[in-house]
Design brief:
306 residues, mainly alpha, Tetracycline Repressor, domain 2, 80% helix, flat, binds protoporphyrin IX containing FE, binds farnesyl diphosphate, transferase
């Protein structure tokens, strides 16, 4: 007993010295979770012509944030061996042994239980279970299986990352609604050009780690064509909220400008590519989604202030 405790404390000692709260923070993929939360917030606001109830707003944001962060932490643990092989990810806390896999799992479990309880007690059980399905979709189905199995990994797995607007909507109404599904469809269609632009730039990383991402299995040119076609599809999908009367002219103008910008980058990537074009396209994808959801919000409150 004494011996095993000594071994345990030695193990901890080898991890503890360099560990700070920043390592745990990094495990949660904070910038990704922030954008996910923006899409959830917009889902909440668009679900009602009134202001969102403060309890639902706060508990919804914290609960969805905790479960999304838990999913991100599990992704770091499951992927630490492949992360070690890639220039973009070799410095992550689990790879660098700043946080041990077992501590990371305890952290993820704490976040997940906390997030679920907050949603179930102060929001509703529909939202709590749908958010758990997002966690299972990303941390288990995408990370453990799809990522290593098929170049369509991020298309199918993208559904988990696209679900937050629906979570926001059900948090407010406790009901599924076709308008919420349209928001999910927008993020779902946005995900392939978002990720493949980065994967084109990082194709050597994925080759080294033997992950069957599209540019590895089908080549960079095919992936550029796929980015362009998905960007065209995104432009069409983004028209749907206006065409079904869910949004007004502010959204139509804003989304058209944003999609024209995305199309410009995707076109350049395919037909006039420079060294920096892939990463510029990836960077623009993030600005695109962020501004698109802010525009949805402005359009919504403008409609009800008239
Ligand atoms: C299966 C779906 C997705 C895949 C495979 C994917 C992949 C990636 C990758 C590989 C990165 C680079 C991370 C790094 O810098 O190390 C990234 C960054 C990012 N992603 Fe995604 N993503 C997906 C979905 C989403 C969704 C749904 C959102 C938000 C709504 C999102 C928001 C972001 C943001 C904000 C960043 C920048 C993070 C930073 O600079 O630290 N992603 N994504
Ligand atoms: C509850 C809920 C909505 C959960 C979804 C949460 C979530 C964090 C989705 C983000 C998607 C994402 C960053 C994928 C990249 O993973 P990767 O492993 O391909 O990228 P990496 O190599 O940078 O780790």
């Amino acid at each position: 007993m004494g011996k095993s405790l000594a071994v345990e404390s030695n193990k901890s000692a080898s991890y503890r010295p360099q560990t700070t709260w920043r390592d745990y923070y990094e495990l949660t993929k904070p910038k990704v979770v922030l954008l996910l939360l923006l899409t959830a917030l917009v889902g909440m606001c668009l679900a009602t012509p009134d202001w969102v109830d403060l309890q639902v707003l706060l508990a919804g944001m914290i609960g969805i944030g905790c479960l999304s962060s838990a999913a991100a932490v599990i992704n770091h643990v499951v992927d630490h061996r492949i992360d070690a092989k890639m220039a973009r990810t070799f410095n992550r806390p689990v790879v660098k042994k700043k946080v041990s896999p077992s501590r990371a799992i305890v952290f993820a479990a704490t976040l997940a239980v906390l997030g679920f309880l907050i949603l179930a007690l102060w929001v509703n059980t529909l939202t709590a279970w749908l958010t758990v399905s997002g966690l299972v979709g990303y941390a288990f189905i995408y990370t453990m299986y799809l990522k290593r199995a098929t170049p369509q990994n991020i298309v199918i797995g993208g559904l988990a990352g696209a679900i937050p607007p629906l979570l926001g909507w059900t948090a407010v109404t406790n009901q599924l609604h076709p308008h919420a599904l349209l928001l999910v469809l927008i993020v779902f269609t946005w995900t392939p050009p978002h990720f493949w632009a980065l994967a084109i730039h990082r194709v050597k990383d994925y080759e080294r780690a033997e992950i069957p991402m599209l540019p590895v299995t089908h080549g960079v040119e095919f992936t550029k064509t796929s980015v362009l076609l998905y960007t065209v599809l995104l432009g069409i999908v983004c028209l749907l909220p206006y065409l079904v009367g869910m949004t007004g002219l502010i959204y139509l103008v804003g989304s058209t400008l944003l999609n024209a910008g995305f199309l410009y980058y995707a076109w350049k990537l395919k037909f006039a590519c420079e060294d920096s074009t892939a990463m510029k396209t990836f960077g623009f994808s993030i600005v695109h989604l962020m501004v698109l959801f802010v525009v949805l919000l402005i359009d919504h409150y403008f409609k009800y202030s008239l």
